[in-house]
Amino acid sequence: RCVGRGLNALFIGQDHATQQHHHGLRGISHAEATNMYVREALNELKYPERMQKMLITPAREMSVELVLHKENGDIEVYNGYRVQHNNSRGPFKGGLRYHPDVDIDDVRSLASLMTWKTAVMDIPFGGAKGGVTVDPKNLTERELEKLTRKLVVAIKEIIGVYEDIPAPDMNTDARVMAWFFDEYSKLKGFSPGAVTGKPVYLHGSLGRESATGRGVAYATREILKASKLGKVADKTFAIQGFGNVGAWAGEILTEMGGRVVAVSDATGCVHDEKGLNIKALRAHMSKGSKLADFPEADKAPANTLLETPCDVLIPAALGGVITAENAGKLQCRVVVEAANAPVMPDGDQVLRDRDIIVLPDIYANGGGVTVSFFEWVQNLQNFKWEEADVNRRLDRKMTDAFQGVWDIHQARKIPLRTAAFALALERVTQAEVHRGFD
Q1: Are 7 and 25 in contact (CB under 8 A)?
Q2: N or C: where does the chain have the smaller number of CB atoms within 10 Å of the terminal CB?
Q3: What proportions of the chain, in percent to the nearest 5, are helix, strand and coil?
Q4: Residue 228 appears among annotated catalytic residues
């Protein structure tokens, strides 16, 4: 059983082999970290065992085999999965990933995470996740399209506009969603709302590309204000990862008056105490140039970014980058989790002990799923919103969701991460109880 209040206590009762697998909380997967945080919130809420089991158990799991006749004449069989965790608050919602490491356990946990993320953001969706165990780099574009269409045919009876709405995820993009929408519409009739993350010119939403990074910027503004640390203006920021999320977050924080003093990706780190020119850096990279070759800044190794002195550190790249081994070296007052699970549970414990505020991923990167919801609403209306309307509504959603998390954090004197999961659990439980169990 899970006992105690600290994160380390949550492993009590696991067998020796499992504990060894976790290497003392290091090297655990995103899925395992999520489950630890859910259990911590369940303990805080003192939910009875029967309620915990109901909330954790998925509603439906589907496994399919996808047979693909490749262009070289080979025949390959790929495993596909769709896990539908909970739909008490609305249709199932969650991404679709193509990756060689996809398995049912990881998909199951990520489906659970979507249930809690949509609940924190107060979006009328449940949680789901899907994936195919495949390395897309080993397929031609035509083979990838065939595989996607075969997946739609295989799972068509459990997805739909009011049933389960997939979205892009790891190694899937607007192009894949366009194929998905087209194949589903062939089978079920015109259905743009059956999937989100589509190209803007094919029933997608304006503002979707910048949504997650913009949401991170709004979330950062709210935590600084609530923590009485002041405004974004004149604060210093360090951003690890300069893909879609990190680049948009950096640009919008700069527009708010903040100074992004350091940015890194796999090629290296660039820094400037006076503030980097983020638009110039984005233009530099859009030409195919490396971040580390940006001429308007000083250079440093990529692994130095996390120790950059700054007000706010934004990990926006990979998961698991902040652990007990480096959490003591951070020189920031706030960590905003733009990536999924960038802070491991052992690192989280160190940051708590150091009184460094951590704004959790379950809320901080919720801008993406929020604008996915807006896209779905526009598809139902068959009416496209202006980008300014999308951004304004996103701002309101991020602000309201933050207030809900902050209120529980203040009332219960618990970390923001635990407060976010507690808020989500309470909302899902309320829906389950009021809908009844028969």
Answers
A1: yes
A2: C
A3: 50, 15, 35
A4: no
> Within the chain, which residues score under 70 in pLDDT?
1-27, 438
Q: Looking up tokens 């045919």, which residue turns up? A: 153
Q: Residue 343 gets which letter from DSSP?
A: B
Per-residue confidence (pLDDT) for residue 27, from 0 to 100 = 59
Selection from 22, 33, 405 nearest residue 226 by Cα: 405
Q: Where are the beta strands (DSSP E) in 251-301?
A: 259-265, 268-271, 298-300
User: Coil, strand, or helix at residue 175?
Assistant: helix
pLDDT in tens, 124-146: 999 999 999 999 999 999 999 99
Residue 201's nearest CA partner among 178, 182, 179 is: 178
CA distances from 136 to 145, 152, 194, 303 (A): 11, 17, 23, 28
Query: Listing from the earlier edge strand, what are the strands of the sheet with 259-265?
Result: 298-300, 268-271, 259-265, 236-240, 312-315, 334-336, 357-359
pTM for the full predicted model: 0.89
Catalytically annotated residue among 93, 117, 129, 397: 129
CB atoms closer than 10 angstroms to residue 108: 19
